[in-house]
Specification:
Mean pLDDT: 91
Order of helices and strands: HHEHEHHEHEHEEHHHEEEHEEEEH
Oligomer: single chain
Helix content: 25-40%
CATH architecture of the largest domain: 3-Layer(aba) Sandwich
Largest sheet: 8 strands, mixed
Strand content: 15-25%
Number of helices: 12
Number of strands: 13
Distance between the termini: 44 Å
Strand order of the largest sheet: 3-2-1-4-5-6-7-8
CATH superfamily of the largest domain: NAD(P)-binding Rossmann-like Domain
Low-confidence stretches: none
CATH class of the largest domain: Alpha Beta
Shape: globular
């Protein structure tokens, strides 16, 4: 737990909205950050510097050079080593604030892992890159009555809103179904780091209010930002919808796994699969694959290059297959090089 009377936080304590009591509450708070990309790295850095006592960073992916344009906790060495994002972020945060607890979780958030990864958090922060994961977070938060803060950005545009179970509309209230048709991604539409920072800043501001016990001061609004046009808009956020499947009918299909769909990794020509039900010995796998192509490995992951594909395999059996968006091709490559 971070100390509330440490000079480190003196400028926050001087702020009337927070004060010493609010800082103490931050030091006792536990936050789960879902996704450690452009939004999540900003969340983690800001909350660590603010003295939030426990941060759990949940991310399934590894650092690449293309991430460095907008993901705030990584550097070229992390990309060269192919470190998992959660691990690289935790190492950087430990150097920023040694007083707090940082818990990296290199894992895929899915119905089977949600309880382990999200339980015990006072707040959930959305740094995810797809609607499927956000619906899962929404189901978990509404069922457990945990506040969470939605955020998304693409191109120069982003939006965010807080979700206070029972008091505000949730994601399902506003979007009962995910958007239909092809949606823009970072790979097709690009993204400016200024908009990810802006959206994440608004999310962190709301998070500080909630964690400091100031939820009554939270503006219940949907905020949209376009950093290219300079336009910022806010619309009133309604209360829970009487027709909401989650808030009203208490139906949680995403949490129960009834709506689990293949996930396209944002800004990546890649597919994630989890074909193995048992842990993998990465050293043994490295020895098997070495005669077949270039292999790089560390204690967290193994990367195998079989042009035009790249396989990154994790100890829990999960893999990210880069070079295809076809799940069938990805599963075939997994079976060929890793095994069924």
């Amino acid at each position: 737990m971070a100390s509330a009377d440490n000079r480190r936080y003196s400028r926050q304590i001087l702020f009337p909205g927070l004060g010493e009591q609010g800082q103490r509450r931050l030091g006792l708070a536990r936050v789960a950050i879902v996704g450690c990309g452009a939004l999540g790295t900003f969340h983690a850095a800001a909350l660590a510097r603010a003295g939030v006592g426990h941060l759990r960073i949940v991310d399934r992916d590894y650092v690449e050079l293309v991430n460095l344009q907008r993901q705030w906790l990584f550097d070229e060495r992390d990309a060269a080593e192919g470190l998992p994002k959660a691990i690289a972020a935790a190492r950087r945060l430990a150097a920023i604030n040694s007083e707090i607890e940082i818990e990296p979780a290199v894992a895929d958030l899915n119905p089977a892992t949600a309880a382990d990864l999200l339980e015990g958090a006072d707040l959930l922060l959305d740094g995810a890159d797809n609607f499927e994961t956000r619906y899962l977070v929404n189901d978990f938060a509404i069922q457990r009555e945990i506040p969470w803060i939605y955020g998304a950005a693409i191109g120069s545009y982003g939006l965010t809103m807080p979700v206070l179970p029972g008091r505000t509309a949730c994601l399902k209230c506003l979007y009962p179904e995910p958007p239909s048709g092809a949606q823009p991604t970072c790979e097709t539409a690009g993204v400016l780091n200024a908009v990810t920072a802006a959206v994440a800043s608004v999310q962190v501001g709301d998070a500080l209010k909630i964690l400091a016990g100031k939820s009554a001061e939270l503006a219940r609004r949907i905020t949209t930002i376009d950093v290219w046009s300079g336009e910022i808009r806010q619309a009133p956020q309604p209360g829970p919808s009487p027709d909401c499947p989650a808030c009203t009918r208490r139906e949680f299909p995403h949490l129960e796994g009834r709506h689990r769909a293949p996930i396209s990794l944002c800004g990546r020509n890649a597919v994630q699969i989890h074909e193995s039900a048992r842990p993998l010995n990465l050293e043994e796998l490295k020895e098997r694959l070495a005669p077949l192509g270039e292999v790089r490995s560390n204690e967290f992951a193994l990367r195998f290059f079989a042009a035009p594909f790249e396989l990154t395999v994790f100890p829990d059996g999960r893999a990210i297959i880069k070079g295809t968006t076809d799940p069938g091709v990805a599963r075939g490559l997994y079976a060929k090089y890793v095994g069924n």
